[in-house]
Write a structure and sequence with these properties.
Blueprint: E1 4-13, H1 20-26, E2 34-44, H2 50-54, E3 61-65, H3 71-84, E4 89-92, H4 104-112, E5 118-122, H5 135-152, E6 164-167, H6 168-173, H7 183-192, E7 197-201, H8 219-227
Parallel strand pairs: 1-2, 1-4, 2-3, 5-7
Antiparallel strand pairs: 4-6, 5-6
């Protein structure tokens, strides 16, 4: 099993003043197989108190966009900044508190064991762990996952989850263009490069504790933007 010199946990955030502190503070600073863990927050032009809240959380680096550029652009900024921070591995976790940061070691395991270059949380791989969520979101995920599977020849179960781990090799090969989202595009990008992708079934919260989704404000508009 390999050992990582530096893991960067990257949190993209847009108007998440109520949940961002809990997410950043919950990131484990000691992880088996990792010498150093750093936390990066990309504040994507928030208009609430997200920036002020983050500044007191102990995040190692904060990068702010002057205006809201979209999750896809925030992801691109986060990957580039993580690499500049010397990341050997990058974990992305949403700022809304739906994922359990204590599961980060489970995401890293396939990378540490050399089985995969990207590992993604799946909410649907294990029927016992499927979260309670609006049926329209499950339906939309199924549609997009089917499209990704048909294009890659794979059998993924969840291509829209934002809780993922990337090896440095995967991060260097990423070349995404989407503004509104990045989740499906990453699968196509890395699969085309022949990199191994593995899913790990994890229990997540299917609905936000605070506010509404900043990405899927309207399921039909989101679907069109993601499709494009």
């Amino acid at each position: 099993m390999m050992e990582l010199e530096r893991l960067v946990v990257f949190v993209p955030a847009f108007n998440e003043e109520n949940s961002i502190a809990g997410v950043v503070k919950s990131v484990p600073r000691k992880v088996a197989g990792v010498k150093k863990v750093l936390v990066l927050v990309v504040n994507d032009g928030s208009t609430d108190n997200t920036a002020a809240v983050v500044s007191s959380t102990g995040a190692d680096r904060i990068v702010s966009h002057k205006t809201n550029l979209g999750l896809g652009r925030a992801f691109k900024t986060g990957i580039e900044e993580s690499l500049r921070m010397g990341a050997n591995c990058i974990v992305t976790i949403d700022a809304d508190g739906q994922f359990n940061s204590a599961d980060i070691p489970k995401l890293l395991q396939p990378i540490l064991e050399g089985r995969a270059e990207m590992v993604t949380c799946s909410r649907f791989k294990d029927p016992k762990l499927v979260p309670k969520m609006p049926w329209i979101k499950k339906f939309g995920n199924g549609i997009f996952t089917g499209i990704v599977n048909s294009l890659t020849g794979k059998k993924f179960t969840d291509t829209q989850c934002g809780f993922r781990a990337y090896s440095r090799e995967a991060a260097l090969r990423l070349n995404t263009f989407g503004k509104h989202t990045y989740t499906q595009e990453v699968f196509l990008n890395l699969a085309a490069n022949g990199l191994a992708i593995e899913e790990v079934a994890l229990a997540v919260r299917g609905e936000r504790e605070h506010g509404k989704s900043k990405v899927v404000k309207n399921i039909f508009v989101y679907g069109m933007n993601a499709m494009l």
